[in-house]
Amino acid sequence: GAGVSQSPRYKVAKRGQDVALRCDPISGHVSLFWYQQALGQGPEFLTYFQNEAQLDKSGLPSDRFFAERPEGSVSTLKIQRTQQEDSAVYLCASSLEAALPTYEQYFGPGTRLTVT
Amino acid sequence: AQTVTQSQPEMSVQEAETVTLSCTYDTSESDYYLFWYKQPPSRQMILVIRQEAYKQQNATENRFSVNFQKAAKSFSLKISDSQLGDAAMYFCAYRSAGNYGGSQGNLIFGKGTKLSVKP
Fold first, then answer.
1. B110–chain A nearest CA distance, Å
2. What does the pLDDT look like over A39-71, one tens digit per residue?
3. CA-based nearest residue to B51, from A30, A72, A101
4. N or C, which end of chain A is more exposed by having fewer CB within 10 Å?
C-alpha cells in the first residue's frame, strides 16, 4: 500500500517568508509525528498528534512553528517568518497507535527546507 | 532526559564482511525500546531492528543482529555478509515504553553513523 508522503520535497524560502509543509500519513494511522533533521544530525522530535488532537508540542523550537491535523489525517507544519536556522529536513512519521510500542513508526521522505 | 550517543560518525566495510555499529544511551527508566533505523540517500527512514529492554534475548533480523547490554546501556548493531545496498546512514533510537500517548511515543535519535560498503 501507499506509504507516508510529504510535499513539497524541496522548498527554498527567503528569510522572513512563511512556509507550509504537508504530510499525508498512511490511511488509518492514528498517530502522527513531526521531526526536524538538521544537516549531519539525527532527527529531533517536534510534535505529536493522536487523531486530530495535538498531545505534545514540546519540541517546537519557537512560537513561529505551528502544526495542525484538523481531520485526523493530513497534517501541516507551518513555519512563520522563516530564519536561516530553520533550514533542515522535516520528517513526518505515522503509526497505527503510538501508545502501543509494538507499532512501528513509518517515515515519509521528508521536505528539505532551505532558507536563504 | 534520555540521550543516545553514536560515537562512530563513519564506518567502512568490505562487501561480504561483517561490521558492528556502536550505540550507547542514558536513561533512568527500566522499560523502554531500542531501534536501529537505516536512512539511504533518498532519506526515507526504514526500521532495521527493534529490541525490547525487558527481553534478554538479542533481536535478530536476517543479516542484522544486535548486542544489547542493559547494564552497560549499550546497543550495537552487527551487519553480517555486508551488501552494497547496506550503504546508508544508520541511526540508533530510544523510545520510552509508556502505556499512553503523548511524548512517550516519540523517538530519541543519535547523530548517526554513515556506513560505506566497498565492492
1. 6
2. 989 999 999 999 999 999 999 999 999 999 999
3. A101
4. N
